[in-house]
Design a protein that fits this description.
The complex is a heterodimer of chains A (263) and B (536). By secondary structure, chain A is α/β, with parallel strands linked by helices. Chain A has a single domain, classed as Rossmann fold. Chain A is built from 9 helices and 10 strands. In chain A, strand 7, helix 5 and strand 8 form a beta-alpha-beta unit. The termini of chain A are far apart. By secondary structure, chain B is mainly α. Chain B contains 22 helices and no strands. The relative contact order of chain B is 0.07. Classes of the chains: A alpha/beta (263), B mainly alpha (536).
Amino acid sequence: MGNQKVLALKHLTKSFGQKHILQGITLDVYQGEIIGYIGPNGAGKSTTVKIMLGLVDDFEGEVELFGYNIADGDPTYKQRIGYVPEHAEVYDNLTAREYLTFVGELYGMERDHAEEKAKDLMAIFELTDVFDARLSSFSKGMRQKVLIIASLLHNPDLLFLDEPLSGLDASSVMIVKEVLAQLAEQGKTIFYSSHIMDVVEKISNRIVLLHDGQIVADGSFEQLQQQNKEGTLEQIFNELTGFNQHEAIASSFVSVVQDGDTT
Amino acid sequence: MREFQSLKILDTFKKGFEVFGVDYEVMRKILEVKLTMDQRRVPTMFNQSTKKKEDNNQFLKSLGMYLLMSLILIPLVLGDHYFFQMSLVFGIVMFIVMTSMISDFSTVLLDVRDKVIIGTKPVNARTINTAKVIHVTIYLFCITGTLTALPLIVSLVQQGFLFFIVFVVELILLSFLIIMFTALIYIGVLRFFDGEKLKDMINYVQIMLTMMMLVGYQLVIRSFEFVDFQMNITIHWWQYLIPPMWYGAAYEWLLQHNQGQSIMVLSILGLVVPILALLVYLRLIPSFERNLDKLLSQNTKATKRGTFYREWWANILCHTKEEKTFFLFANQMLSHEREFKLKVYPTIGFALFFPFLFLFNDLRLRSFAEMSNSKLFLTIYFCILIIPTGVQMIKFSENYQGAWIFKATPIKYVANMYRAATKALLIKLFFPVFLLLSVVFIFIFSIRIIVSLLVVGLTASLFSVICYKVLNKSDLPFTDSFAAAQQTETAKHFALFAVIGVFVGIHFFSLSVPYGEYVYFGVLAVTNWFIWRRVF
């Protein structure tokens, strides 16, 4: 496996008005790594990803992808990136065929090539019947599969996945997880954000934990376990983000449900 | 997807785009997708019934409507009072195009998906922005084109070539002005607000623009009543602010050879303002794109609004707990549904504007004292016009999927829902307008009209029940998508307007009979009592 540097963030800071979303992120990512990128809501995860995709500008610090400084403004580097967005945005008036072909073409693929590949991938996910149906009629899981296909159609070297398994059924989850593992083996780099800790724990070979715009932990799951003397990633997560009242909160919740005392 | 005629025309300008650093092939693909989606922006109800005719162009159908509307323009391009007539023509064109721009194309300008879907691909920003502008332009030219095709031909035959050419050039300038004006307003709003507040502001801007168009259109007509258009044309300062007049003035200058200073200034404004707007727009585009993100951000800080007023009404108007619950619910829905506001609030403008329009017209014929003794207070019936639109829209909701809750919860009497929603509509929408008008009218017509006002109130209450039955039958409130609302039931609306006419007639008659009004009041009260119980 190559140890070529794919991604480099140097002192990345970003604020919206008074709010400091990112407070100096420095991170190097190498080829073949699956990064579990985790943190509580508002920690700055999606902002980091958006900056790397060129959706947010006006940041301070340096962002290099494949050795190219993205502040230079040439979007060509995006050709090697695949992205599954957080809110599952698609043009849902289009059919799956139209949407996937369009995305493929935007990535610079030939129309016929993109269409054929999309068709094959849809067939593997057992979606051949709905290839010509509009995305607006798709269930959440079907839509998610389309998004995953859209992100991989052009065979990218770097993947940004934001909750890519949401809405998928159990067997599809197993397939996608295996796909990711095999892609990483072949030298693709994956940036995986999620709130579901056990998946992150199993899938990633390196975990980066973000809290209040700073990296508070970085290393393999085993390394984090040794440092924190905790069992699961969930527990480590709670310890590092200083959250330990879940039992107390839960019991006051239940007590209110039963019309009891709030304390 | 099929080939688009407009894109083939665009192909001839390929070189031009490439000079400006636009990746033409990619832009063409984006436009192809966008145009395909526009065709499919179909009412969902339609969608299910005509599944086979997938690519049947919905947009082309709506163009047919514009062609029909263009007939009213034809008489206006005949005759020789160019300034007056053409200002009116441009006024009408601007009104129609701008309203369709606000209602249909705001979504294009404010589409946040573009950024995530296209922005993450290797496509440069200039290509994306150009695609956006071209997309809106194609649409706008289709509408303006159909709307003016017939008048243009007529003008070429009747008024000659110079007239025709001036018409064409000015239409293009006007179209640009409309695009830029809309875009600049959105840029401004996006800059100063964010989160939910931003969405509210956009909503209010849309409502205000629609109302402005209504009033502005009246102003164009009005301004010529003060102008002796045979010889001297005196221009008031505020007339410089009405764009259709800029374009009308150019005719006065170029075809009537009137080289008065104000005419020249007006004509030049018509040329300079669109260009200035374009320059400002190009400069602001990057910050526009950046601020567009705010539409996604969730600003959760919100304060609880006062509920005292609502609860007070709920206690007075509703007799069961279930009805009370629905009343409060409907009230809250009505204050949050942006689409509802956009569709209904402009008619409030109408309701407030029309009574006074009549009063002002009347004042030119007789004195104030004479008027205040007349029966002109009956113009207050105009405010009842809000009710049909409001009632029709109440069955729709942006979040119509949420309606499962009505099925999943143990509701005893569904009738309570209709009743409560209609009551909420009356209180929330009609009552404030009615109250405002009543206070002003009591000042104008003295306290003697108080019984008449009560009669109007009772009529409104009765009328809303009739509207509900005619327009909604047994559809539950807030359970259908707004997309289905596009087919407005025009015939039914006109029938309902006729019903108002009948009410006004009876009221008018009752005024001329001794004690007639009191009897009428009594009859209405009893009918109301009966109908609210039985009909739902």
